Structure formats: structure tokens, C-alpha cells
Amino acid sequence: MDAEGGAHDEVEGAGNADGYDKEYAVVFKAHSSARFAPDDELELTFDVPSLGLSGLRVRAFTRWEGPGDGPLPRELVIECCGRAGDLDAAMRGFSGIARSLGTFIGFVGNVRVGSVEMHLAFESTPNSVDREIVEVHIPDERGLVAEGRVIRSDLVAAAFLAYFTRPADSLRLNRALHHYELALRNWQLGGEWLSLNHLWIAAENLTKLVVRKLMTDRGRTQEELAHEFGVVTDDPCRPRWPDELGARVRVAHIFDDDRETYRAANDASNGIEHGYWDLDKVAAHALRCTDLTFSYVRRTILDLLDLEPAVADKLMAIKVKDVQSLRRVVRGRLVGIADDPAMPGERYPRLEWTVSIDSVDQDDSTFRFHQRDTITPRTHPDVGFQIERMEVRGRLEEGEATVNMSDAPGVQDRSISRAVRLLDQVVPLVDEATSSTAERAWTQASRFAFNCFGQGVACSQAAAALIRAGQPIEALPLLTGLLATAARFEQMTEPSGPGLGVIVRVVLDSLNEIGADEDVTASAEARVKERLAGLAVPDTLAGPETTSLYQGLGAEVALAESVIRGTYTAVNMHVQRDATTATSTFHVAIPAGPLTDMVASAAVIAMLELLQHAASLLDMTYDQERTEAILGEARAINETSAARTDLFPWSGSEPPGQTIAE
């Protein structure tokens, strides 16, 4: 960042800005847990004489994403604008400034800031007609937001400018700040020993600065200062007395005479450097003293920056924050009999866990994210998952306890019910049956029937997708289509019925449905009957509601008609009312429960009865024993869940406050 004597020699030269007539803008990005508030940003204008940079304009802010009342903080953005010889010189010259600022943003927030990387550079000279531009692809942050802390731009400005205007010793302070930055990046559970190692190196770099400051403040030479600390300077056997002075100053002024912390940090550092300690012993020492060492090194840096006391006090009050150790933990039980609890085709049972953010609250220094956890077990069809406890674990600070999320709002258990799991078992049975028809010969009528069977399978799979997505109400019209198809196959397999003539009548009736001319319809019917001579084609068909399958699932059919007609019966199934706040919420996705089980089990019944009828009619091979077992279980679930399903979960006058939730 800067050099002995106050120049910032780490930044490669941008050349002499005097006489340059072109301006350039360079934009940098960094993943950062230190965030500026949406209405706050840092703006600075200053000179860097050693680089020939005058009037350099720097702007830093956090990119926020989303609506104004609940935006999410994303990456840190740093913009540098000023004159330079060419675009490459601007990129070289401005990068060191931006990285220095990123270091200070992390230091002020006392929290992790990632590497500052160049994203975009271009000529920004007003009214220029031919501009050079370079962009490095750095994708915008997406997904879950990491833990973080709000920082104030005025505190960053004060610390950064104090550093830039230091008259001397800047390289040592620069190295100390970089090691402090690395300590923050490693500050997580299990990484304490790495943080401590960097903090110790920072303390060693700060030692000579503190010695020189004491000499200046007390008006002493180095030898006189050594005598004050009881260091012998005229013993030929001890020529390295400056090192001894440094050690005594380090323990007294950097570690504030905390000899226990000093000794633990020193021993751990030596154990790492010289390799005579195992890492578990180093880690044990680090656990005892790293947080205190953070505080001692931070205070020393603030003292050397010579800030206003009020600013230094505010910065010192910001404690180091671990933003990397937070883990969400769920405990539960796998319930059910199976040789292997894993989902077929996978090695282990697992939980598909997604976290979304409903809203964000912000105060002066922290964010509170109101999150929604959705857990979907991926296990064997015969094995279910029961949640017992959910927790948030991380580094405990100031005596706080592990957070128990078991009763927290926003946690959704999408454990798949037995009824929904049965849907997954239907697919292999259908696949087996359809594959058995590959070598058979088809008549025109049997081909019509097979195509109709395929339509039933399509309705079944579409309904299953909606049921799994938490929308069983919207799956009901598809269930009705599946039932209608299964009902036709029931009519085709009646012992005294017309058999495949039913499907021929269905095909002929479709001409009327699409509005064909009566003469065209009559001509087509005559040709079909001639081609299919010997096949009894009824003139009319009884409605699907006359079949036993349709009648057995009457509640589902009635509710499906409500969805199709747009009545309020179906709407009620989505509405939940909060009596304490007198508000109602329309939930697009319905939590798992009796309604979902009723619709899912009905879909299983309809598809498997369709399969049984189609198999006997089209000579398909399928696992009859397995099919009967699943049907029996589905019928039992359907009966129980239908009795528990409340078609009017909410009634009464419309409450004043209303929202829509996914």
C-alpha cells in the first residue's frame, strides 16, 4: 500500500498525471461481509504524489438487490476515477488504491472481506468518441446471503485518510494490516491457529513502530528507552539488545501487559514456525488467546493512526466477527423398513435443503435475515424422515447459546408423505407394462386405446409434479382427466360391454367436439365402422361418472369441479388466517397434510386401476402383486385423509390485512 516515508510504492506507477488529458474509471468487486447501508456510501478525493495521481476520486458501496423494503446485500464495489497515461497504467495504478481500501473496509468492520478484483476499466473522458474498455467476467453474487455487519462510511474515511497521510513507517503498518486482513479471513471454527499466526506476524511488524512512537513521545533515544525497560545495552555478550527491547515493548504496549495471552501467542507462533508442536497443541493455545490478540493488535493499529479519540473509541468498540462458521443442523429419524434407506440410484439417504430469505431487518451494525428453510428428504420410498430438532451453530460470542430452530417460524418440513411416495412407485410399474408391448401387433382400435392410455399416463405424471410442488388443488383437474381415461378403460373391460368399441366411439365423438360438419362426421363414422367390421361400436356412451372408480373418488371430483369453475371452495383451501394479527395469507403452495395425501392417493388409485384395465385389454405384462399391494395402501390412505380434510379451513368476513405467499 505505501512505502517508508509516506509514499505508496506497492502500487505500480501510473505515471505522472500532469499533462494527461484522458480520464479512466476502474471498477473493482469483492465478496464482503462488511457492508455499507443502502443509503450510505464512501466518497473520497485525494492525491497520491508518488504515483503522479492528483484528484483521484474513489467511491465504495455495497450493491443491494431486490425491492426497497427488503433488499439483500451483495458484493462490495469500489470505483476509482482519475487521469492516467493510458488504460493499462490506470488499471495498475488504481488497483493498489482499491485493494488498500478493501483492507481498511475489513479492518473497520472487523470482519472478513475477500480479495478485491478488477472487474471493469474504461476511458471516462467526457465527450470522447473512441473509448478503450476492458472487462473481467466476475458474476454477480446470487443465492443465500452470508453473515455480515453494517459499516459506516465516515469511520472508513477517517481511518483510510489517516493511514494515507502518515509521514513515515508505512510499509510496516501496511504489512501489519495485510496480516490482520488474513487473520479475519481465517477467523472461523478450526481456523483460529491460522488467524493467531497472522496476528503474531502483525504484532511483530508493529513492534518497531511502537518503539519509535515511544521514543518520539518520551523524547528518548533507543538506548535510553531500553534502559527504561530494564534492558542492558552495554553487555558484549548480549549484542542483540534491540530485539530484547522490542520483545519487552511488545508485551507491555501491544499486549497491554497481558503476559498469559502474550506467552500463549508467542509459544503457538514458535511451535508453527519451528515445527516442534503438533497442530492440535497449536490450536489449543489459539483457542485461548486469539480473540484477545485481535483486540490488542487492533488497538495498536488505531493508536498508530493517531485518530481522533472519539473515532478510535467507536472503532475499538467493533468486536471481531466470525461470519464463516454458521451452520444449520437438523436432527431426526429415518422411519421405515428397507435394506438400504437411500433413494434408489444414490449412495446415501439425504436431505435436500434449500434456504430462501423472506425479509431483512437492519439496525446500526447488523442484519437480521428472516429465512425460510425447506427440507425435502431423498430416501427409499419405504423410508420416511421425522424432524426432531433444528439448530443454528456457530462461534458463540459474549455468552450466547446455540440457537434452537425447532419452533422457529419459516421452517418448512417437506418430508414426503407415504401417499406422495406411492406416486414414485407407480412410474416403474407403468414403464414395465408399456415396455412389454414392444413386439406385439396392433389393430387400429387397440392403437387408439394405447394412445388413450398414454394420455392417462401424461395426466398422472403432470398431477404428480404439481402435488410434489405443494399444489394438490391445481392437480385436481388433471386428476379428473386421469379418472375419465380410467373410467373409459373400466367400461371397455366390462364382461358384457362393447370392449374396444368404446374407444372407437370416443374417437368418433371427438369430431363433434372440434366442431366438424355433420356430413363429415357421418362419413367418417361410416368408414371407421366399415374398416372395423365385427367390432361393436355403441351409438352413445355412458358418462364416466357411472363407473365405480369415478364414484369411489367423488370428493376429489367435486373439488376439481370447484377449481375449474373458479368457486371459493378451492380458494379457501389456500387461505390461512392468523388470529393474533387478524390477517389472512393466500399460500400458493399448500403445506403437506391430509389434503395432499387425499389427492396423491387418489392419483395412485386412478393410475393403477387404469393400468390394470389397460393390461388386460392390451395384453400388457406388469407386476400384479406389487400393484395390488400399492393399491390397497393407497385406498387406506385415501379413506383416512379424506375424513381428515377440511374443505373450509377458514371462513368468515375478510380480514383487513392480506398477503400472498409462495
Into which percentage range does the β-strand content fall? 15-25%
Largest sheet strand order: 3-4-5-1-6-7
SS field, number of helical segments: 19
Q: Measured on Cα atoms, how large is the radius of gyration?
A: 37 Å
Largest sheet: 6 strands, antiparallel
| Through-space gap between termini | 49 Å
Poorly predicted runs are 1-17, 405-411, 650-656
* Overall outline: elongated
Arithmetic mean pLDDT: 82
Count of beta strands: 17
Assign the structural class, choosing from mainly alpha, mainly beta, alpha/beta, alpha+beta, or little secondary structure. Answer: alpha+beta
* Share of helical residues: 40-55%
Keyword list:
662 residues
Describe the structure.
The protein has 19 helices and 17 strands. The strands form five sheets. Strands 3-4-5-1-6-7 form a six-stranded antiparallel β-sheet. The protein has a three-stranded antiparallel β-sheet with strand order 9-12-13, with no helix packed on it. The radius of gyration is 37 Å and the shape is elongated. Helix 1 (87-109) crosses helix 2 (153-164), helix 1 (87-109) crosses helix 3 and helix 10 (418-435) runs antiparallel to helix 11. It has helices at residues 87-109, 153-164, 170-185, 192-218, 222-228, 241-254, 259-274, 279-305, 309-316, 418-435, 444-468, 472-492, 501-513, 518-531, 548-552, 554-565, 568-572, 594-618, 624-644; strands at residues 23-30, 34-36, 42-48, 53-65, 72-83, 117-123, 133-135, 149-151, 327-335, 350-362, 367-378, 384-393, 403-404, 411-413, 575-578, 583-587, 657-661.
